[in-house]
Write a structure and sequence with these properties.
Helix content: over 70%
Number of helices: 15
Number of strands: 2
Strand content: under 5%
Order of helices and strands: HEHHHHHHHHHHHHHHE
Distance between the termini: 41 Å
Largest sheet: 2 strands, antiparallel
Structural class: mainly alpha
C-alpha cells in the first residue's frame, strides 16, 4: 500500500534550474531541487511497486498471508517511530498529538490493516499485475466518497473519468467476455477491490489528521494501530503462519525497502515538489509492477488487457489532475532532464 501523502509545507517552493545555475559559481555543478525531488518520488514509486512482486516470493516459500502481514507490521513499526524521533520536529503539522488523536489513529489504523489484509490476500490468489490495476482505481472510489460525504453530485468531467476508469478495468479482468473469467480471478479481484475501497476510506477521512499532526506522526500511529489489529486478528482466527527463514528474509525486504524507506522518500519528495506533481509520478507504479512481474514472474497481459491498463491509467490521471499525454510526458522526463548535475 501506497503511504499517505501530505500537503507540502506553505512557503516552500522549488528553485528553477536556471535560477540555481545563476546563483552558483561557474565551476561548481548544481543539482535542480525540483528535478531531484521528482527523482526521489520516482524511486519511492519503484520501491512501492515491488511490494506485490516480493510477496509472491514470500508465498513461494510456504509462508501465509497472515505470517507475512504480522512480520511486516512488527518490523516496520519501530522504524516509523525512529523516523518521528529523527525528523518529526520539522514535520508540517498544526499541533502535537492529543489523546483524541490516538483514538482516531486507532480507527484509521484498523482501516489500513484491512486494506493491507485484503491487498495481500488478492496477491496470493491472482497475478500481481491484475491486482495492482484493480487497487489502482481507488481514486475513483475517493471521488464517490467525497460526493456522498459532501452531499453534492460530482462534476461531469469526474463522472466521465470514473466511467473510463472502470471500463478499462473491465477490459483487464474480462478481455474475452465475463463468461471466460475464472472463479479464482473473480475472487481475487474482489479482494483487491475491497482493498481499494478500504484504502480510499482510510485516505479520504484521514487527510485532515495528516495535516493536523503531520504525516510522519500519522504514519507511525496508523502503522502501530494496524500492527496491533493484526496481532488481535491472529489471536482470534489463529491461522497458520508457516514462518521460515527464506520467507522471513523476503518479508524483511518488503518491510524496509518497500514500506519504510519509500515512505520517507515520498514524504521528502512531496515536501520539496508538492503533492500534485508527486501524484502524477506515482501513476507509473502499475506499469513498473507490470514490467517487473513480466521479467521475474512471467506474467503477461493480453492486448485487450494492455488497452484496458492504458485506459485505467488515463482515467485515474484525469481524476487526479487536468491531464494531457504531452504534459505527463514532460513531467516523467523531468527527473532525467534536470535531475542530474548541470553546468552553467
Amino acid at each position: 500500500m501506497t503511504p499517505p501523502s501530505s500537503p507540502s509545507e506553505p512557503g516552500q517552493q522549488s528553485i528553477p534550474a536556471s535560477d540555481a545555475n545563476v546563483a552558483a559559481p561557474s565551476t561548481a555543478p548544481v543539482v535542480s531541487p525540483a528535478g531531484s525531488a521528482l527523482t526521489i518520488v520516482l524511486l519511492a514509486t519503484v520501491a512501492l511497486a515491488m511490494k506485490g512482486l516480493l510477496a509472491k516470493f514470500v508465498y513461494a516459500t510456504g509462508m501465509t498471508v497472515d505470517g507475512l502481514l504480522l512480520l511486516r507490521f512488527l518490523i516496520a513499526m519501530p522504524f516509523f517511530w525512529l523516523g518521528v524521533v529523527m525528523f518529526g520536529k520539522n514535520r508540517p503539522g498544526e499541533r502535537k498529538m492529543k489523546p483524541v488523536d490516538l483514538a482516531w489513529g486507532g480507527l484509521y489504523g484498523g482501516m489500513f490493516f484491512l486494506a493491507a489484509l485484503f491487498d495481500f490476500t488478492a496477491v496470493s490468489l491472482i497475478d500481481v499485475t491484475v491486482s495492482r490495476i484493480v487497487l489502482f482505481t481507488f481514486p475513483a472510489i475517493v471521488m464517490i466518497l467525497e460526493a456522498l460525504h459532501k452531499g453534492r453530485f460530482p462534476p461531469f468531467r469526474q463522472i466521465v473519468c470514473f466511467v473510463i476508469t472502470y471500463v478499462g478495468l473491465v477490459l483487464v479482468l474480462a478481455p474475452g467476455g465475463f463468461g471466460e473469467v475464472s472463479q479464482t480471478l473473480w475472487y481475487g479481484a474482489a479482494w483487491a477491490f475491497c482493498s481499494a475501497l478500504t484504502y480510499a476510506i482510510y485516505l479520504y477521512f484521514g487527510q485532515r489528521m495528516i495535516t493536523t499532526v503531520g504525516s510522519m506522526h500519522f504514519a507511525a500511529l496508523i502503522n502501530t494501530a494496524a500492527g496491533i489489529c493484526m496481532v488481535v486478528y491472529e489471536l482470534i482466527v489463529q491461522n497458520p503462519l508457516n514462518l521460515n527463514m527464506a520467507g522471513i528474509m523476503w518479508t524483511v525486504g518488503i518491510s524496509i525497502f518497500c514500506t519504510v524507506i519509500p515512505f520517507f522518500l515520498l514524504y521528502e519528495g512531496i515536501r520539496r515538489v508538492g503533492e500534485t506533481q508527486a501524484s502524477l509520478i506515482s501513476l507509473s507504479g502499475p506499469a513498473m509492477t507490470f514490467f517487473a512481474a513480466w521479467l521475474f514472474l512471467g506474467e503477461v497481459l493480453t492486448i485487450p488487457q494492455l488497452i484496458g491498463f492504458a485506459v485505467v491509467t488515463i482515467g485515474v490521471a484525469s481524476l487526479k489532475n487536468s491531464f494531457t499525454l504531452a504534459g505527463l510526458g514532460r513531467l516523467l522526463a523531468r527527473p532525467f532532464a534536470s535531475g542530474g548535475p548541470t553546468q552553467r
